[in-house]
Structure formats: structure tokens, C-alpha cells
Design goal:
This protein has 312 residues and is of the alpha+beta class. The protein has eleven helices and nine strands. The protein is globular and about 65 Å long. The structure holds cobalamin and iron/sulfur cluster (2 copies). One iron/sulfur cluster binds next to helix 7 and helix 8.
């Protein structure tokens, strides 16, 4: 085990050298998270549609592809917001894609971790575990009142990725969920959230009220009547509870510039064109900016966002 401990140390320092942060947790710890989430479910804290769509498929033990898994490797990478521009009625309309929507860093981290462990014939497979609670319980970060995880030096602008591994791990610093100190005297995210998803009376997000849960659905699902169209502020997801958070003040102006789509391309997106119906050059643009998955969201989200920003 001493040599496995050394391997874990090397792995974590390799991640750090590349600007990432990581932790290794014994796989058995996932049982604690399962019990916790199931208890909230039994007590009626989760909306049924939300639970089925988002939580029912989470994993809490070794997967069939790696039944000998003994640990979970959790890592995270800083990510900026991305500004994507749509041309519409002669105007350039910039729209924001929040941090964490790019999977590029998952692939970079996966390669680093796989290479480090291959030196001792250990394997990894991606893990669909509850990454926030894992991150907070193992000491990688702490919760903000907005239910998002904050990591030192990254704020909430980071994307978590997890892997099951057959690498043995005994040591961990498992602890009770932590709330960031700054949140004790702050309510900025509650005030900034237009839907009441962050509740004054309970910590757990009212996820069924969260804009992100409502604007990342397939094109045939109507928006609920209570969701005011002026509340949408991103191409997908929502930035309000991060944008006004003092813990994110160093990151909130961090943007990268993504693709610019022509008037003709915007029109095709609004009409709900499928991948096969788009010109090759547009498909390439979507691929390069990692936006292929947005194609199904465009006919639903774009009309609302463009109507709010371009009159006439
Ligand atoms: C389901 C889900 C959603 C749902 C529900 C969000 C939620 N809060 O659960 C919806 C669709 C609404 C959503 C929205 C967003 N999501 Co999301 N989502 C997930 C997903 C798939 C699972 C999260 C989960 O486990 N939820 C279940 C709840 C029960 O877990 P929890 O929030 O940790 O709850 C614990 C605490 O509340 C704690 N607790 C209870 N009482 C108390 C009291 C105190 C004082 C304390 C400290 C703790 C505490 O106990 C609970 C159980 O363990 C993960 C990916 C993954 N596989 O993990 C991404 C993930 C969590 N999402 C992510 C992101 C970025 C977002 C958005 C910011 C995207 C955006 N910009 O629009 C928003 C943020 C909304 C918000 N304010 O939370 C990131 C988080 C990154 C980060 N820095 O934290 C993840 C990890 C994806 C990723 N790979 O990066 N998401
Ligand atoms: S806005 Fe304030 S209360 Fe909300 S997460 Fe940030 S520091 Fe905490
Ligand atoms: S992401 Fe938006 S809707 Fe969801 S909790 Fe934060 S501010 Fe509220």
C-alpha cells in the first residue's frame, strides 16, 4: 500500500502541475452519498420529474465495466465562460455559454490520469457519481449557498470529472459537508436568482425551479408558464447566482470568444435544422466550438433570447 500511496501523491502532483486539482477516495464512500440522497428523496425534497431525469442514473458503486474498482479519482479544471455570437436581423447578438460546458478538460485529465496509472497497470473508467457532494466531502471544495462548489483559486468556474479505478486507496479526509465561510453573512445569490430556486428556508436547491433544469431540454418540451422569458440569460443554463457572487469576483469577467454564426446559420438553427440539413462549414464550426449538443436546444432557446435582445 505504501507504493500505492506514493502513486496517488505523484498523480495528484501531476494534476496540480497542469493546473488541475484532484483527490482519490475509497469507492465505499459512495455508499454515504447514496444514503444521504435517498433520505432526501424519501423525505420529499426532490421533485419527481427532476429526480427521475437527473439523479436516478447516478452511480454509487463499481460499474460493470470495472467491477474491481476500489477508488474514485475526482479532478477539476478551471473553465471560462464562452461568448458565442449570432447574427440576427443585421445585429450581432453575443450570448453566454457558462463555464463547465466544455468537455475538453475531461479528456485532458483522463489522459493524464490514465498515463499515470498505466505505469502500474491500474485502469480507469468515467464515473457518473454525484461530483459536488464527493468534492466537498473529500476536501476538494466547499458549497456556496447557491449549492455550487467553490475551489480555492478557481471559484465556482471549474468543471469536475470523476473516474472509477482499481487503484487501492485507504486514506481520505472524509468530512461533513462544508459551507463557505463567506456565505454566512451573504445572501447575494438568493437575491440574484429570479425563480426562487435558492430558498431562504432550506439549503437544498429547489432544482425544479432552476432555469438550467428548464432550458436544457429537447425542442418538443414547452417552457413552464411561470418561467418569465426575460429571466433567460445564457444560451443554455444560467449565470445569475455565480455572476453576483463575491467568491467569483476574480473570475466573473473571464470570457473566451467562441464561434460567430451568420444570419443564414441563425435562421437554420431557429427553424430546427438537423445536423444533416446544415452546410458542412456550419457543422465544422459547431464541432470546433463543442456545440453539437446545443443543436437540439437552439430552436427552443434562441427565439426567446433573440426576441429579448433584438426588437422588431
Ligand atoms: C443534477 C444536476 C443539476 C441540476 C440540479 C442542481 C443541484 N444543485 O443538484 C440542475 C439541472 C438544476 C443543475 C444546474 C446547474 N449545474 Co449541474 N449537475 C447536476 C449533476 C448531474 C448532479 C448533481 C447532484 O448530485 N445533485 C443532487 C444534489 C442532492 O446534490 P448536492 O447539490 O450536492 O446536495 C447536497 C448538499 O445539498 C448537501 N447539503 C444538504 N443540506 C446542507 C446544508 C449545508 C449547510 C451544507 C453545507 C450542505 C448541505 O447534501 C446534499 C446531498 O449530498 C452534476 C453532475 C454530477 N454527476 O455530479 C452537475 C453539476 C453539479 N452541475 C454543475 C453546474 C456547473 C451547474 C450549473 C452552475 C450550470 C449553469 N451555469 O447553469 C447549474 C447550477 C444550479 C445550482 N445553483 O445548483 C457542475 C458543478 C460545478 C461546480 N463548480 O459546482 C456539475 C458537477 C457538472 C460538472 N461536471 O461540472 N445541475
Ligand atoms: S452569493 Fe454569497 S451566499 Fe451566495 S454563494 Fe456567493 S458568497 Fe455564498
Ligand atoms: S442557476 Fe439561475 S435559476 Fe438556477 S439557482 Fe442559480 S440563479 Fe437560480
Amino acid at each position: 500500500m505504501a507504493s500505492e500511496g506514493k502513486l496517488i501523491e505523484t498523480l495528484l502532483s501531476t494534476l496540480r502541475e497542469h493546473g488541475y486539482r484532484g483527490r482519490v477516495v475509497p469507492v465505499g464512500r459512495l455508499r454515504d452519498l447514496k444514503q444521504e440522497i435517498e433520505a432526501y428523496y424519501r423525505e420529499g425534497f426532490f421533485d419527481a420529474e427532476f429526480y427521475q431525469e437527473e439523479l436516478a442514473a447516478l452511480h454509487f458503486g463499481p460499474p460493470a465495466t470495472l467491477p474491481t474498482a476500489r477508488s474514485v479519482i475526482l479532478a477539476t479544471a478551471s473553465q471560462p465562460q464562452v461568448r458565442v455570437t449570432f447574427t440576427w436581423k443585421g445585429k450581432h447578438v453575443p450570448l453566454v455559454v457558462p463555464p463547465t460546458y466544455s468537455q475538453k478538460t475531461d479528456r485532458l485529465i483522463e489522459r493524464l490520469v490514465a498515463d499515470a496509472l498505466a505505469t502500474r497497470d491500474y485502469r480507469i473508467v468515467r464515473a457518473g457519481v454525484p461530483k459536488k457532494s464527493l468534492a466537498v466531502r473529500c476536501g476538494l471544495g466547499e458549497y456556496g449557498r447557491n449549492n455550487i462548489v467553490y475551489v480555492q483559486g478557481m471559484g465556482s468556474f471549474h468543471r469536475l470529472v470523476a473516474f472509477f479505478s482499481d487503484l487501492p486507496c485507504e486514506d481520505d479526509n472524509w468530512r461533513a459537508p462544508q459551507l463557505a465561510e463567506r456565505c454566512r453573512k451573504c445572501r447575494a445569490c438568493i437575491d440574484a436568482c429570479p425563480t426562487g430556486a435558492i430558498d431562504r428556508k432550506r439549503f437544498l436547491l429547489r432544482a425544479e425551479r432552476c432555469i438550467t433544469f428548464r432550458n436544457e431540454k429537447p425542442r418538443n418540451v414547452p417552457f413552464p408558464a411561470w418561467l418569465d422569458s426575460s429571466w433567460h440569460n445564457c444560451l443554455a443554463g444560467c449565470m445569475n447566482c455565480q455572476r453576483f457572487c463575491p467568491l467569483d469576483k476574480d473570475f466573473v469577467d473571464w470570457f473566451e470568444y467562441g464561434a460567430t454564426f451568420t444570419d443564414q446559420e441563425t435562421r437554420l438553427f431557429l427553424r430546427g435544422a438537423t445536423l444533416e440539413q446544415l452546410p458542412d462549414s456550419t457543422v465544422k464550426k459547431l464541432e470546433q466550438s463543442e456545440m453539437l449538443e446545443f443543436l437540439d436546444l437552439f430552436p427552443r432557446n434562441l427565439p426567446v433570447l433573440l426576441r429579448e435582445r433584438v426588437s422588431g
